[in-house]
Amino acid sequence: MKEHSFRKVNVLGIDVSTMRPEKAVNLTMDYMKRKGLEVVFFHSAESSLYCQNQPEAAEAVQNFQLVLPGDSHMELAIRHQKNSAGDGEGIGEYADEYLKRLFSKLNRESREIYAVMSKQEHLDSLQEYIGTMYPDIFRSGIVFDGETTDRIVNEINANIPDIVFFCLPVEQQLLFVKEYASMMNTRLCICMESVQPLIRKETERAPEILKKLRLDGIWFRLKKESIIRKTVVGSIFKQKVLEDAGSGDASGEKTPDENNL
């Protein structure tokens, strides 16, 4: 059952929590120890636009146990809705800070995670990152090719992890949670589009194996293409947020924080 004891901001129809990352991590650890399956969902510009066109998706996200800001665009939208002053310092850090704090706690308790990702290189980089930084976390995972849902559910049930990470496009995240949650032997699902921003930030280099294979140029090109896509999606999302806010303001005047959105 969704809890309502913490403050939220409504962004394009979805309530997003404004709690600090450390509080969100503490709640996450609590959810992991409960009976039943809970969902922590990182809501981004991309998932917000998806929910705008898919009412069933919006309803599902609204009912998740905890909805958190998933990218810098969502963080800025929350700040805009709250009319908060400030120069934007720290924007884009929420999900990264959450993950580092969560991994630290999981490492101390020697917990097990299972990651479902869309690319093998993303899974490999997560395995390498956790193995280096948080060696007491038991980790495994699989690549989702769009057709192996039953196999993935079976693999999750064979491992019985404490947490399953669905690092996939939003429609695939919701597919697993809506259609297969009752079949998965785990207590908690964390849905986010990617953990790669954190890994890239802390390594800032192409994986060594790619360098040895002379594929590091491809890695940097893919990184650049991802940044371009996020910029386009963020621009569309920003316009919708401003239109939504302006619909109730006939004067059309900007709020003090609108230029920072």
Automatic annotation (TrEMBL):
Its EC number is 2.4.1.-. It comes from the Bacteria. Transmembrane segments: none annotated. It is an enzyme of class 2 (transferase). Keywords: Glycosyltransferase, Transferase. InterPro entries: WecG_TagA_CpsF (IPR004629). One of its GO terms (molecular function) is hexosyltransferase activity. This is WecB/TagA/CpsF family glycosyltransferase. It comes from Candidatus Anaerobutyricum stercoripullorum. The lineage of its organism: Bacteria, Bacillati, Bacillota, Clostridia, Lachnospirales.
